[in-house]
Amino acid sequence: MRADGASEERAAAVSPRPAIDHVRKPQILEAAAAVIIERGLTATRISDVAERAGTSPAAVLYWFETRERLLTAALIADEEDFAERVGERLDRAATATEKLRLLIEATAAESRIDLWVELWARSLHDPVAARDRLRRDDQWRGLLAEVISAGRAAGEFDASVDPDRAALSLAALMDGLSVQATLEDPGLTEEAMASILLDHAEAVVGSSLRIGPAMAGAA
């Protein structure tokens, strides 16, 4: 008889400190992300993650304690990887116009947000998850607002644009389209998503973003 997730976690939690020298946290996070995307958080067992990572359930729980903390850590790791890759290209972009276009095209290129959907569902009933969700959203909107503010100051964007309001509007559309992409809407290609986002952003900032070198695809 298979133990349920709670029983499995309790049993592993009281085990002695596991031998973990052979496995690193990034391996567990990568395995967790893959399993959660395949099965959803509710159907994901610690043993599933351990098997994918090539370690023991006790080792997984030594690092993360619960499935819920594992989800949050996997999401943060995924976001940090995206931010690092995009951040390097943002640093090379010469103008706010190029930076905003880069953020839009990178979002369209990596539009699946399976882990975010799991976190959103949890945040409806879990205050800790809700705080995690709000903190990550604030960081993303803050980056968009910073780029838009810089473009306004440089005269690239309409002087009347409100950076915070514009960032909220654009982030909300990004989220909505990303949900459709995650659900594999056949009508929403990467190119279509990027085009819709660019249209909206251009209307919001009062300037064309379709100039300069092609930026699509995160390096």
CATH class of the largest domain: Mainly Alpha
The amount of helix comes to: 55-70%
CATH topology of the largest domain: Tetracycline Repressor, domain 2
Compute the CA-based radius of gyration: 20 Å
Largest sheet: none
Please tell me the total number of domains. Answer: 2
Number of strands: 0
Alpha-carbon distance between the two ends: 46 Å
Structural class: mainly alpha
Summarize the structure.
The protein is mostly helical. The chain is built from 10 helices and no strands.
Structure description:
The protein has 219 residues and is mainly alpha-helical. The protein folds into two domains: 5-65, Orthogonal Bundle (Arc Repressor Mutant, subunit A), CATH 1.10.10; 77-205, Tetracycline Repressor, domain 2. It contains ten helices and no strands. The protein is elongated.
Kindly list the characteristics that best describe this protein.
single chain, 219 residues, mainly alpha, Arc Repressor Mutant, subunit A, Tetracycline Repressor, domain 2, 2 domains, elongated, disordered C terminus
